[in-house]
From TrEMBL:
SusD-like N-terminal domain ranges (all copies): 118-219
Protein name, entry field: RagB/SusD family nutrient uptake outer membrane protein
Keyword presence, Metal-binding: no
Signal peptide start and end residues: none
SUPFAM superfamilies: TPR-like
Residues covered by the RagB/SusD domain: 368-654
Domain of life, per lineage: Bacteria
Protein family per UniProt: Belongs to the SusD family.
Localization in the cell: Cell outer membrane
């Protein structure tokens, strides 16, 4: 029996760190297998096992536990850990990768391989070393025990409590966005409770949203000098910590999501019920949810602006040889990839953008080859076509743009300042808005880096087969012919043997995102006129005219912006453009319930294995992507989880 006792002992120790649903698994297995061994088990517990109270014996130990609570934050800046990057249709990777990846999970999801027996990117049970339920459990332990730390300044104690309250909300939010209605774990259950008590059930969508919103309100409460700070003053040690603006902005995102079609009166999930018949999705559309979301956005915007958060603009003349186009491009790029810039509301403290820059950056210099510059994070044709023309309207709507011949070739002249003079490339690449050139590299494009050899001219991207940025081997290339320039910090430098990377905190939330959320909520709540100024501020940074001016002057749908449905289309496309390659589109398509349209479309590439212009510029079908609705809007719960906790029900379609 000794081996059995030790096994049971280890199981019980694990209970302290398992989430509510996992507790059920551990206790059930222990009770079934070892019910007859209780007395002997108690006799073998060592006397020197550390007690959880030791973690709160003083301020130093408590701070360690605080950072443990932070450690469960998903690594949202890692291309293989954030489903927003590679599990949708923004970015594509050649298949099947053998090197240069941590997990194949997101790529399998994008290719329609998600399943319930081996769930990909399964943050419910634990993925990438992070279990959201375990994070919630540790947050609960912290909130329960922090009051017993005697040598902790009260101001610091209150701040820590607010931070952990936010983290508890965020872990619930992260699961909610993936799985929909989830259990609420407000307090940890004692280890000695019965098996039935730990078999938690899922809570209705509205209950989950209200619970998370309440936690975020609690985290953000308090005056300027109590609780969370409005801004981080100690930037040496505390960047990435939680502020009031962070909490208010995540609440805004939560409530906009809750008001969106996926969660607001979604009859596709009318049969998703707990085993007691409790309906988990509200079945009636509630317009007041948009009003609630708009108010949350208003409060968050005001708090952000009062704290000094503002859209990032590259200072004119700050770069040698800088022209107006470069100024706009750097404003767009640096809003994401500049360290702790003025626009950042919350940068991830557990995920600096390092690997993603290597995945995004191609071989820039034809005289220098470095295998660390992989160039594999390839934007899709969908994204190349999503950006506006230089007139600020969609390419299919601009009366002055030749949409029908966009895949034919054209030779650039000196007036095409964003394309190499005299270079022949696709007509799709001409006369596009600044964000197209700031976000994407392509055959014939220019790529500004501050560490260019000349320091006065950008790199010239040439991406046909055997050219410097093109396919020259079996792995270091873009499958589509496009590159993700936006995510590469301009200070990245390289030689044949070394790469120097300026890390930046991944922007979980920035002001442009919040402005667009506010514009969306205002429009959906019937206040479209008030939405336009926030939309236009984002466009102005990109060098575009206002929505009213651009559509009235250039669009074949000149009154589109004057209706709620028309402005909805504009706002959704604006989000797709402004937040391109930041992991937003994946979730937006789901909450809008447009994924069944957008993700049931082919993935195309240029003919990247060809060397001549004529052969290269042939559009090739790479993959027929499929999306099954309503099944694919939510993650499945694993079959093992359902067997362990029989009170849980599976998501519709799985």
């Amino acid at each position: 029996m000794k081996k059995s006792f030790m096994y049971l002992y280890k199981k019980i120790q694990q209970v302290r760190f398992l989430a509510a649903t996992q507790i059920a698994a551990t206790l059930l297995a222990a009770i079934v297998l070892f019910n007859s061994c209780k007395k002997e088990f108690l006799d073998i517990v060592p006397d020197n096992i550390p007690n959880i109270d030791h973690a709160f014996s003083n301020a130093i130990e408590a701070e360690k536990f605080l950072f443990t609570c932070f450690s469960f934050l998903p690594r949202e800046g890692e291309p293989d850990s954030n489903p927003g990057f590679n599990a949708g249709d923004e970015l594509w990777l050649y298949w099947e990768p053998v090197l240069d990846f941590y997990y194949k999970d997101p790529y399998r999801i994008a290719r329609g391989q998600q399943n319930r027996s081996n769930v990909y990117m399964n943050y419910w049970n634990g993925f990438d070393g992070r279990s959201m339920w375990q994070g919630i459990r540790d947050c609960n332990i912290f909130l329960e025990k922090i009051g017993q730390v005697r040598d902790l300044d009260e101001i610091v104690r209150v701040r820590w409590i607010k931070e952990v309250t936010f983290l508890k909300a965020y872990y619930h939010w992260y699961l909610f966005r993936m799985y929909g209605p989830i259990p609420i774990v407000d307090q940890n259950l004692p280890v000695e409770v019965s098996v039935e008590q730990v078999k938690v059930k899922r809570q209705p969508v509205d209950s989950v949203v209200n619970y998370i919103a309440g936690l975020l309100d609690e985290a953000a409460s308090g005056g300027e000098y109590e609780g969370l700070p409005s801004r981080i003053l100690n930037q040496t040690d505390e960047l990435g910590r939680i502020t009031k603006v962070t909490a208010l902005s995540i609440k805004a995102r939560l409530l906009v999501t809750a008001a969106s079609p996926l969660f607001n009166g979604n009859t596709d999930y009318r049969n998703l019920q707990n085993k007691d018949g409790q309906v988990l999705f509200n079945q009636t559309y509630d317009a007041s949810k948009w009003q609630r979301a708009a108010e949350a956005c208003r409060i968050a915007v005001q708090a952000a602006e009062a704290a000094g958060v503002k859209l990032y603009y590259q200072p004119a003349g700050s770069v040698v040889g800088q022209d107006p186009y470069t100024t706009i491009e750097l404003s767009v790029r640096n809003a994401v990839s500049m360290r702790w810039n003025s626009e950042l509301i919350w940068g991830s403290s557990v995920s600096s953008a390092f690997n993603i820059q290597l995945f995004a950056c191609p071989q820039l210099d034809p005289t220098v080859f470095n295998a660390e510059l992989k160039g594999q994070l390839a934007p899709t044709f969908k994204m190349a076509e999503l950006f506006y023309t230089n007139n600020g309207v969609p390419i299919s709507e601009d009366r002055t743009w030749d949409y029908a011949n966009r895949f034919k070739t054209k030779t650039a002249t000196a007036t095409d300042s964003c394309i190499q003079n005299g270079y022949t490339t696709a007509a799709l690449h001409f006369n596009r808005e600044a964000r197209f050139y700031a976000d994407m590299g392509f055959d014939g494009s220019k790529w500004y880096m501050s560490n260019n050899a000349s320091a006065k001219a950008p790199y010239n991207i040439q991406a046909k087969a055997l050219q410097s940025a093109g396919k020259r081997n079996t792995r270091l290339y873009s499958i589509t012919g496009y590159y993700t320039k936006k995510l590469v910090n301009t200070k990245l430098a390289f030689t044949t043997t070394n790469v120097s990377i300026e890390r930046y905190a991944w922007p979980v939330m920035r002001l442009a995102d919040l402005y667009l959320l506010y514009a969306e909520a205002l429009n959906e709540s019937g206040n479209s006129g008030a939405a336009l100024p926030y939309l236009n501020q984002v466009r102005a940074r990109a060098g575009l005219a206002s929505v009213e001016s651009a559509w009235s002057t250039f669009s074949n749908r000149p009154t589109k912006y004057t209706t709620i449905s028309g402005l909805r289309e504009i706002i959704q496309q604006e989000r797709g453009i402004e937040l391109a390659f930041e992991g937003s589109r994946f979730w937006d398509l789901r909450r809008w319930k447009t994924a069944q349209e957008k993700l049931n479309a082919p993935i195309y590439t240029w003919n990247i294995t060809r060397e001549t212009t004529e052969d290269y510029y042939q559009r090739i079908l790479e993959f027929n992507q499929t999306f099954v609705a309503p099944r694919d809007y939510l993650w499945p719960l694993s079959e093992g989880e359902l067997q362990i906790n029989t009170n849980l029900v599976q998501n519709t379609g799985w």
